[in-house]
Structure formats: structure tokens, C-alpha cells
Specification:
Blueprint lengths: L1 E7 L3 H16 L2 E3 L8 E6 L4 H20 L4 E6 L7 H8 L5 E3 L7 H11 L3 E3 L20 E5 L1 E2 L10 H5 L3 E2 L2 H13 L4 E5 L16 H9 L6 E5 L8 H9 L6 E3 L7 H7 L5 H14 L4 E8 L6 H14 L3 E6 L17 H24 L5 E9 L6 E5 L5 E5 L8 E9 L4 E5 L2
Parallel strand pairs: 1-2, 1-3, 3-4, 4-5, 5-6, 7-10, 10-11, 12-13, 13-14, 17-19
Antiparallel strand pairs: 8-9, 15-16, 15-18, 16-17, 18-19
Helix pairs in contact: 7-8, 8-10, 11-12
The structure holds 5'-deoxyadenosine and iron/sulfur cluster.
Length: 439
């Protein structure tokens, strides 16, 4: 039997793509290993959203050189977003001539064929498709988490935010048919999954390309009726496409969790326009107001970027002010990084690194204060926690997520894993809540 390692970089989409890559490998007789020195295949599923992500891949490949020398039969592959960029496949082969396999995001299903060719011909395979093919259904997946199943509902992105490389490497938006998604559910339920997370770059534009049309609210409605699933989450949303109908649908459906991850990116309408986000600060604040009106207990999180070209002190102040006003439960904060080939990379007025650093530090400080205050406000409340595992392996503590996607830790044993516990919150921390089983 041959062994494989898949090393994943980047977002949840990539994590799930790796589950599918693993599924295909296991279907042709590979088994997973942790040991790079004896593995028959090491596959890097890569990310290119920021330069730091690419640098991680470069240094990982650099470290693999020694292993390849001592184990020359090992196949080293690079796939995912990075090689999908123009010229990158050739650059990878030039920098790391010991890489045997390079493919992109549009031909994952061919992995077993590529490996067969390398083994038969002992020649490197480099295959990048510039256009996405039809969505391939029925590929197996080896899911890493036991309770939470990640399910892709759409591929690609048509938004072309001016800083973002994703549309160039993931292709145009393509929705999976609702029947194909629903058909997966009973199997997930019988494998013990309790929660599904619906994945797409912009799930709120789900279904625009389907005949007959079905929007994201309609899909949620259908999935809420599937008996095998207890909880439904989704990511990522786009504030431009998140409408009141969807808020009302989520408020009504019992299985859809009250967690809203709504990337705002900036609190300045001027910068939002330069980013091509398609909404203003006022629209965003109005949306938050509607969510809080219909779902007062909602957890709201976001992505924010500092240092977009032309961001002045006033723009940054507007971002800080928006954060204070919305009081996000948490934020993923990023320093803008110019990606080659995106419109923003060519904009004048790039912000000096030193200023970006000051801004992100101020932002993180503000967010941490608010996150802790919001968590403290949950002390004394009770939360429905889907128990995922033991903390630090058998410490007498278990952990899981609340419906709002906050980590909750409480005394209990492993028989609770997989069940939904009602937990009273006794103490709040920045990154998690402590509690005890409700009587
Ligand atoms: N530089 C910094 N952050 C970026 N993001 C996307 N592109 C860039 C970039 N060029 C951030 C956005 C997005 C998140 C996934 O990554 O905030 O929501
Ligand atoms: Fe990138 Fe914007 Fe698409 Fe998100 S919506 S993946 S930020 S282009």
C-alpha cells in the first residue's frame, strides 16, 4: 500500500478540497501518513491570497529537497490556487526542479490519472487548465472532522474586488444543483456528522446560474428539512448580497445557526468604492441593524483590511469607528498586500508598511477589548453546545461550539461527544467561554 501526505495552506475551501483529494487517493489504494521521510506522495494544496501564504509554500518545498534526495521515489506535487496564477507553474518547476506534479484548481479530479502517468513514464506532469470544467459530482471525500462536514455549494467568484486574486485562480461562479447537495446529506448523517458548513466564496449569490433558479434562502429552507442534520452554517457572505429575506429565513429556520460572518473590509465608503465592494458604510450598518432587530442574540464577525491603497487617516478612523459601533464578536484582520495582476496592485498611493503596522495594531487592540466585553456579557447565559472533544485529551474537560460559533469549555467526559449540551456560562475569556452543564 502506498502512503500520502497532503499539506494544506489557506482557507476552508482549500481544507475541504484536500478532503476530496484525500478521498480520491484512498480510492486508489493510498493511505495517509505523517512521515515525510517515507511517504510515497507529498501533495501541497496551496494558497496565494497574500504573499505570506506563498512564502510558506516556498519554504516547505525548500525543506522537502533533503527528503527527496534520500527518498527519490517520493512524488512531490503542488496544486491549488498558487500554480493557477499566470507563470507560476513554470516558476515553481524552475525553483524546485524536484517537484514532479503541478496542477491547478480546475482539474483536481485528474489527480489519480496524473499519478499513474508519473509512475509509468517517470516524467514530471504539469497541467493547468485556464477555464473551469463542468462541476464534477460524486467525488469521494475523507473528512477530517468527525461532527462538522464542510460541503461546497458553489465554486469560484465573480466579484473582482480590486485587491483580491481569488476570481483569477478559482474561476467564474458556478453553483452546485440543490438536488446534488441534498443527496449528500443522509450519508453525512449516517456517518455521524451533526453539522454542515456550506462553502462558497460568496454564498449569498448561490443559484444565480441555476435553472430553475433557487436562491441561498431557498437552499437553506430545503436543507433545514433534512432530518439527519442538526446544525447548518455557511461561509462566506457578501454584505452587498445579504438581504432582508435571507435574515428572516435564518431567523425562522431552527437549524441555521445565528452566526453572521460578514466581511466589511473597510469602514470608509470611499475605500469600499475603490475596493469595488458594491456597498457603502451606511448600507453595511443598516444590514447589521436589521440582523440585530430580527435576531438579537446573533454573533457577528467580520474580515477587515488595513492599508488599502489611498487609505488616509480619516478612512482608517472610519474603520475604527465602525468597529466600535458594530461591536463585532471577533474580526479577522489583515494588512493589505498587493497581489500581482489585481487592479489595486497598480494603484498609486500604496500605504507605507510602517503605517499599515500601526493601524493593524490599533485595530487588533480595539477588537480584543470589544471581543472580551461581548464574551463577558454572555456570563450567566446558557448556550447550546455541540460537544466536539476532550480538551487536552482527558483533562476532565470537554469543548464545543455554541450556536454563535464561540468555543465553550466545561467539565464533562467523552460520552458527551456528539451530543448537544446546555451549558451555563460561568467565565469569559478573549478566545473562549468557560461553563458548566445546566441543571
Ligand atoms: N491583502 C490582504 N488581505 C486580503 N484579503 C483578500 N485579499 C487580500 C489582500 N490582497 C482578505 C480579505 C478577505 C480575506 C479572506 O482575506 O479580508 O475577506
Ligand atoms: Fe475575493 Fe471579493 Fe470574491 Fe471575496 S468576494 S473572494 S474578497 S473577489
Amino acid at each position: 500500500m502506498k502512503s500520502y501526505i497532503i499539506k494544506t495552506f489557506g482557507c476552508q475551501m482549500n481544507e475541504h478540497d484536500s478532503e476530496v483529494l484525500a478521498g480520491m487517493l484512498e480510492a486508489v489504494g493510498y493511505r495517509s501518513t505523517e512521515d515525510t521521510s517515507t511517504a510515497d506522495l507529498v501533495l501541497l494544496n496551496t494558497c496565494c491570497i497574500r504573499e505570506t501564504a506563498e512564502n510558506k509554500v516556498f519554504s516547505y518545498l525548500g525543506r522537502l529537497k533533503r527528503q527527496k534526495l534520500s527518498n527519490p521515489a517520493m512524488i512531490i506535487g503542488v496544486c491549488g490556487c498558487m500554480p493557477q496564477q499566470e507563470g507560476m507553474a513554470a516558476r515553481l518547476r524552475q525553483l524546485f526542479p524536484y517537484v514532479d506534479l503541478v496542477f491547478g484548481t480546475h482539474n483536481v479530479q485528474q489527480l489519480p490519472v496524473f499519478i499513474g502517468r508519473i509512475l509509468a513514464e517517470r516524467k514530471p506532469v504539469v497541467e493547468i487548465l485556464t477555464e473551469p470544467a463542468e462541476i464534477i459530482e460524486g467525488l469521494p471525500a475523507v473528512r477530517k472532522e468527525g461532527l462538522r462536514a464542510w460541503v461546497t455549494i458553489m465554486h469560484g467568484c465573480d466579484n473582482y474586488c480590486t485587491y483580491c486574486i481569488v476570481p483569477y485562480v478559482r474561476g467564474r461562479e458556478r453553483s452546485r444543483k440543490p438536488d446534488d447537495i441534498i443527496r449528500e446529506m443522509p450519508g453525512l448523517g449516517s456517518e455521524g456528522f451533526k453539522e454542515v458548513v456550506l462553502l462558497g466564496q460568496n454564498v449569498n449569490s448561490y443559484g444565480k446560474d441555476l435553472t430553475p433558479p433557487l436562491d441561498f434562502a431557498g437552499l437553506l429552507e430545503k436543507l433545514d428539512g433534512v432530518s439527519s442534520i442538526e446544525r447548518i452554517r455557511y461561509m462566506t457572505s457578501h454584505p452587498r448580497d445579504f438581504n432582508e429575506k435571507l435574515i428572516l429565513t435564518i431567523a425562522r429556520l431552527g437549524k441555521v445557526c445565528e452566526h453572521f460572518h460578514l466581511p466589511v473590509q473597510s469602514g470608509s465608503s470611499r475605500i469600499l468604492e475603490k475596493m469595488h465592494r458594491g456597498y457603502t458604510r451606511e448600507h453595511y450598518l443598516g444590514l447589521i441593524e436589521k440582523i440585530r432587530l430580527h435576531i438579537p442574540k446573533a454573533t457577528i464577525t467580520t474580515d477587515i483590511m488595513v492599508g488599502f491603497p489611498g487609505e488616509e487617516n480619516d478612512d482608517f478612523r472610519a474603520t475604527m469607528d465602525l468597529v466600535s459601533q458594530v461591536r463585532f464578536d471577533s474580526s479577522y484582520t489583515f494588512v493589505y498586500n498587493a497581489r500581482p495582476g489585481t487592479p489595486a496592485a497598480g494603484m498609486a498611493e500604496q500605504v507605507p508598511e510602517e503605517i499599515k503596522k500601526q493601524r493593524i495594531q490599533a485595530l487588533i487592540k480595539l477588537q480584543n477589548t470589544i471581543s472580551l466585553e461581548n464574551n463577558k456579557a454572555e456570563e450567566g447565559s446558557w448556550q447550546e453546545v455541540l460537544v466536539e472533544g476532550e480538551r487536552n485529551n482527558a483533562s476532565g474537560l470537554v469543548y464545543g461550539k455554541s450556536r454563535g460559533y464561540k468555543t465553550v469549555v466545561f467539565p464533562g467526559d467523552k460520552t458527551l461527544i456528539g451530543s448537544t449540551a446546555h451549558v451555563t456560562i460561568t467565565r469569559a475569556h478573549l478566545a473562549y467561554l468557560e461553563g458548566s452543564l445546566k441543571n
